[in-house]
Amino acid sequence: GAGVSQSPSNKVTEKGKDVELRCDPISGHTALYWYRQSLGQGLEFLIYFQGNSAPDKSGLPSDRFSAERTGGSVSTLTIQRTQQEDSAVYLCASSFAGGNYNEQFFGPGTRLTVL
Amino acid sequence: AQTVTQSQPEMSVQEAETVTLSCTYDTSESNYYLFWYKQPPSRQMILVIRQEAYKQQNATENRFSVNFQKAAKSFSLKISDSQLGDTAMYFCAFTNYGGSQGNLIFGKGTKLSVKP
Predict the structure, then answer these.
(1) Which of B4, B44, B93 lies nearest to residue A108, judging by beta carbons?
(2) Which tens digit of pLDDT belongs to each residue from A1-31?
(3) CA of B22, closest CA in chain A: separation in Å?
C-alpha cells in the first residue's frame, strides 16, 4: 500500500502568516508522530497522536503550534504567526500502534521556509 | 533526560570499503530500543537496523551491523562493502521500552559520503 504522504512538499511563507502542514498516515496505523528537523540538527519530537487524541503536547515549541487529527487518519500541524526560526523540515511518521516497539514509517517531509 | 550523541558530523569512505559511525546515548532506563536511520537527499527516513537493549547479540542486516556496548552506552554502525547508494545522513535514535508513546530521540546525524 501507499506510504506516509505529506503536503505540501515545500512551503515558503512570510513572517507573521499562518501555515498548515498535512500528513496522511499509512492506512490502519493508529499512532502518528510529528518531528521537526532544523538545519544541522537531528529530529526533534513535537507531538504524538494515538487515534485522535494527543496525550502529550509538551513537545510543541510554543503556543503558536497546534495539531489535530481527525477520523484517526489525517493530521494537520498548524503554525500561527510564523517566525524565521520556524524554518525547518517537518516530518510525520506513523506506526501500527504507539508504545513499545512498532516501526515508525516516515513521510518525505514538508520544507518550511519563513522569509 | 535521555540524550543521543553522534560525534562525527561528516565522514567519507571509498566504495567497497568499511566504515563505522559512532553513537553514544544516556539513559537511566534498563530496557530500550536503539535504531539507525538513513536519510538520503529525498528526505525519506529509512530504518536501517534496530537493537533491543535486552538482547546481547549484536543486530545485523546484510551489510549493516552494530556494535552494542550497553555498559558503555555505545551503539556504533558498521557498513561493510560501502556502495554509492549508502551516501546519506545517518541518524542514531533511541526509544524507551514499554513507553506509552514510543517517540524517538535522535542524534544530530552523521553525513556519510561514499566516493567512487
Answers:
(1) B44
(2) 589 999 999 999 999 999 999 999 999 999 9
(3) 15
Helical residues (DSSP H) of B44-110, grouped into ranges: none
| Long-range pairs of A11-17 with CB within 8 A, sequence gap ≥ 24 | A11/A110, A11/A111, A11/A112, A11/A113, A12/A113, A12/A115, A13/A82, A13/A112, A13/A113, A13/A114, A13/A115, A14/A82, A14/A114, A14/A115, A15/A82, A15/A83, A15/A84, A15/A114, A15/A115, A16/A81, A16/A82, A17/A81, A17/A82
Nearest-Å Rg of the Cα atoms of chain A is 13
**Chain B residues close to A43, C-beta within 8 Å:** 45, 91, 93, 104, 106
What nine digits make up the cell of B50? 534496530
pLDDT in tens, B1-26: 789 999 999 999 999 999 999 999 99
Taking an 8 Å cut-off on Cβ atoms, the answer to whether A101 and B103 are in contact is: no
Q: How far is B83 from chain A (nearest CA, A)?
A: 23
Query: CB B52 to CB A106 under 8 A?
Result: no
Alpha carbons B89 and B38: distance in angstroms, whole number: 6
